[in-house]
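Dear support,

Our group has been running a series of protein-ligand predictions, and this particular one with iron/sulfur cluster is the one our PI (initials K.S.) wants archived with full inputs and outputs. We had some confusion internally about which version of the output was final, so please treat the block below as the authoritative record. The input we submitted was:
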Amino acid sequence: MDTFETMMKKLKEMPQEERMKMIEMNRSMCTCPSCPSHNACAKKAKESFFCSTGKSFMCISEEKGCICPTCPVAKNLGLKNKFFCTRGAEKAQRYEHTLWGSTMV
Ligand code: SF4
Ligand code: SF4
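Confirmed final output from the archive:
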């Protein structure tokens, strides 16, 4: 089990209140708003934390770089992917990779 899987297991086993606190703490550390791909639409809609919530809702479609690898959340949760706003959450990208047997980039 890698860091991400261990963290997801831990989250699942936590009481609801503690789990919500942990999610909010990670959300507050998200650096998406400083990313070149995070456009005016995403800012207006206050979109972020795509590694957990999944793709941007009709705001971000153009990839202009991704600063996820430097985000503390990526380290905390053991994320292996990036461009979550356009390619889907960590869970979704991992699932796709298992289906296709390769990375998407
Ligand atoms: S890894 Fe990326 S999407 Fe996830 S919290 Fe950090 S900047 Fe936001
Ligand atoms: S998920 Fe990555 S590419 Fe998308 S806004 Fe966040 S840091 Fe930028």
